């Protein structure tokens, strides 16, 4: 037995580490009363605030990109429905005369001639027998010929090779945006005082007299509509030789 006085002393023995029930070392946890708890809370709040700002900015950029893409696609779609100027028309003339109908006095004809340059065509329209009580009449080139029975309702819709549709009216100041066959929409309707005839001549840049082209009209029909859009009279285009 060693005395409690030097040089004999009891060897130092380290206290055992504090461990949990499963033998894992316990770690010190910061509590609300810990001196560093406010720093941790502040850093945590700052982290979540920055994360929220980044998420909001990402959403805003995504919405902006989506809107830009939508506008671009809309503009592209609108551009694709515009009719191109026809620059290669042949030296050929077409003529359409309205077939007589018992239910209307409207008569008339449209002649479509080539231009020397081959760019566009020259349209000459002449109508008479317009009823005194009629408002403006409209006329179009339709996508099918008049059948043998003369039924104007069998001529289909307007000539519209570029898919513009007729959901919105034609803008006379932007004829390239109109249906190719909407002659009165692009150049004005039929109107005349009582007992007078209507005559007009104009250049249409978007009609083609070349068979096989999208805007070719030579085997189609001319249809005149009343103010209520009913079909008053119609006739087929034929080539004048």
Automatic annotation (TrEMBL):
Its EC number is 1.15.1.1. It is found in: Cell envelope; Secreted. Keywords: Antioxidant, Secreted. Pfam families: Sod_Cu. The keyword Secreted applies. GO terms for cellular component: extracellular region. Residues 106-229 form the Superoxide dismutase copper/zinc binding domain. It catalyses: 2 superoxide + 2 H(+) = H2O2 + O2. One of its GO terms (molecular function) is metal ion binding. Belongs to the Cu-Zn superoxide dismutase family. This is superoxide dismutase.
